Amino acid sequence: LAFRRPRLFAGRIGLAAQYEDRSDGRLAALLIEQPFYALTSPWAFALSGEDHDERVLRFFDGDPVARDTLSRRFTIARGAAAWALSASERGYVRLGVQAQLRRDDFVPEGAPEPFPRTVTGAAGPYLVWNRANFLVATGYAGFAREEDVDLGATVRFGLMVAPRAFGYERDGIAPLLAARFGARITHGFAYLEGLAGGLFDSSGLDSGSVHLAATTVFQPTTRQVGILHIDGGWIEDPLPGSEFDLGLGHGPRAFQSHASTGDRSFFSTAEYRVTVVDDFLGMVGLGVAGFVDYGGAWYAGSPRRTGWDAGVGIRLGASRSTDTEAVRVDLARRFANDAEPAGWVVTVGKGFVFSPVGKRQL
Q: Looking at the chain, which terminus has fewer C-beta neighbours within 10 angstroms, N or C?
C-alpha cells in the first residue's frame, strides 16, 4: 500500500506513506516534507521514519542461491531543515541541519539468542552550493517530450557528529562530500558525479564508501542519441545487504540477478538509439537501439568477477505522460564468464541500466 501527495497541507507540505508485507519481511515508512520547490525557495524541511522486520539474503560468487540469511530489525527517524543563504534563478547557497535516531540489528536466521537492541544517534550541519545551468533536450530519456537536463554545478558538504554518548563504541565524525558537474559538448552534453563519505573514530576509518560516474550523451540529430556511461565504487565494511549487486536490473543486463556482488564494483555501457516514430497515434514513441555492457563486482581480496553482453532492442515511451523514461525490450547475447555460460536472453526494463550516484537531498 502506498500514498503520496506532494502538496497535501496548505499547498506546500507533502505526505508520503508506504507499507509492504512481503515473503521475506515487513516494511513501513512515512515522510512529511516541504522541499525546495524552486531554485529561489527560501527554506525546506523533512521528517521521516522507517521500520523494517525482514530477512537479508547475501549472495556470493555468482551463485543465484543465497549463501547467508540474516534476520534484521531496522528502525530510523530522521529530521532535517535547510535555509537559503542566497537564492536566485542563477543558483543558491543553502545551510541545513540534520539528525537521526537509528536502530539496526542483525542475527543469523533462526538463531536462538534474542535480538540485541543497538540504538545510535547522530546530528550535524551541511552546506550546498549550486550554479544553475539547464539544457532543454528532446529524445534523451524518452520521446516527443522536452526534458530538463541539469548541467549545472552542485557541491554538498556535510558533517555528522557520532559521539559515544549517542550509543557508538567510540566518538566519531561522519563527513560527506557529493558533487555533480555538467557541460555542453558538440552535439550533446556530459556530466560527472561523485559521492564520498564515511565514519571516522579514534581507530581510523570505521566504514565508508566512494562512488564516481561519468556520462556522455551525443545527439547528431534529433532522432538519434548515443549514450556512454561508466561508474565505479568502493565500500569499506558494508552492512549486510548494502553491497554492490549487479545483474539483470542494474549492470550487465543479460546476466542473472546477483551475478556479481561485493564491495568493489565498476560498470560501463554504451547504447545508440534511433527514433522510428516520435508520437505514434498520439500515444507512444518507438525506437530501436544497439548496446554493449561490461562490468562486475567482487569482494576485496577475491578474484574480480566481470561479464559483458551485447545486443539490440526496442524502446517504447508514452508521448503524453509526465514520466519520460522509455520501456526497453532487449535481445542480448551474454558472453560466458566463470559463473554463467554464454547464451541469448530477453530482458524487459525501464529507463537506463544505470542510476544517478547521488540521491535528492535538502
A: N
Question: For residue 323, which of 187, 109, 141, 183 has the smallest C-alpha distance?
Answer: 141
* pLDDT (average), residues 239-245: 92
Cell match 540477478: residue? 257
What region does 319 belong to: left with phi over 0, alpha with psi -120 to 50, or beta?
A: alpha
Give residue for cell 549487479: 246
Q: What is the pLDDT of residues 7-18, one digit of tens each?
A: 999 999 999 999
Alpha-carbon dihedral 183, 185, 187, 190, rounded to 10 degrees: -50
- Residue 360 scores a pLDDT above 60: no
Tell me the pLDDT band of 359, cut-offs 50, 70 and 90.
low
Dihedral pair phi/psi, residue 165, rounded to 5°: -60, -20
| Cα separation, 178 vs 157, whole angstroms | 7
Q: Give the whole-angstrom CA distance, residue 14 versus residue 7.
A: 5
Q: Residue 117, class by beta-carbon neighbours within 10 Å (0-12 exposed, 13-18 middle, 19+ buried)?
A: exposed
Residue 358 has pLDDT above 90, yes or no: no
pTM: 0.90
Task: Please give the Cα distance from 211 to 216 (Å, whole number).
Answer: 17
